[in-house]
Amino acid sequence: MLKITNLNSGYGKLQVLYDLSIEAPGKGITVVVGPNGAGKTTLMSSIMGIAKVISGEILFEDVPIEGDLTHNLAKKGISYVPQMGNVFAELAVSDNLNMAGYLMTKEESKIKAEQMLEIFPVLKKFYARSAGTLSGGERRMLAIAMGLMKNPKLMLLDELSTDLAPIIAEKVMKEVARMRDELGITILMVEQMAKRALEIGDTAYLMVSGEVRYAGKADDLLHEPELCSMYLGIKAGSEDAIAEIEKPSTEGSE
Ligand SMILES: Nc1ncnc2c1ncn2[C@@H]1O[C@H](COP(=O)(O)OP(=O)(O)OP(=O)(O)O)[C@@H](O)[C@H]1O
Ligand SMILES: [Mg+2]
Question: Of 223, 229, 219, 215, nearest to 246 (Cα)?
């Protein structure tokens, strides 16, 4: 679905990504993890035409999309939920959803917004309230709902769990898995909550200093204790890591 080959990109004269190759296969969750400043958001920005692509190829459904405007990418079926500033704080929840449905007819947008309220009942409660008064978690749900409003084939999610209480983050993760399982959406997600993301993910990439350090199955990365403890804060010896490492199914590779 999304295929990035030998991407070099950055901002102005600053190169951030080096020779990066990443694939997000259809109807799967591809997780990108890595330390702060590794270039994860820059990867998203490069796909969305915000960061400068120096060289390399970005194909969406086998068609190059480098240089496309955000508006065109939305039309092609790509939704981006950025790391920050992803709702219109002064507008009501309802208006935020309507704005997100701008490419549809009024009727379509209305039906879609109703679907969103079913998926995220919490938004129903606050439908008429301005988005700026929502809690962090509620705001993220609204941001995801706005992304989903566009009926995307591919969703780019940048650190949904940041600043969320663990219980809310867990809920958001479950919704992401549901988007894949029930709506068949392809997801490319960047996550700080590495362990949980790798558990729901299918394919994973570990990025360090603008380069890919690991590419493979998401579950397999959890069984690389050195990479996990060095870059992801998943400590070998912690209860979680031991539970993961001792799973019987992890003997050898499948
Ligand atoms: N708009 C920008 N202009 C110049 N440099 C930038 C810009 N955005 C990011 N950078 C730099 O690019 C590098 C990678 O940043 P990026 O935001 O992609 O990292 P990240 O992996 O998303 O980190 P985090 O986990 O903290 O979100 C950093 O050194 C950062 O300072
Ligand atoms: Mg980032």
Answer: 223
Average pLDDT estimate for 16-45: 96
Domains defined along the chain, listed by start: 2-221 (3.40.50.300)
3-state SS class at 113: helix
Average per-residue pLDDT in the chain? Answer: 88
Cα-to-centroid distance, 82 and ligand 2 (Å): 9
Round to the nearest angstrom and report the end-to-end CA distance of the chain: 24
Amino acid at residue number 185: I
What predicted TM-score, i.e. pTM, was given to this entire model? 0.87
What ligand is nearest to the CA atom of residue 20?
Answer: 1
Q: How far apart are CA 176 and CA 187, in angstroms?
A: 8
Residue range 192-200: mean pLDDT, rounded: 89
Q: Which two tokens stand for residue 248?
A: 């019987």
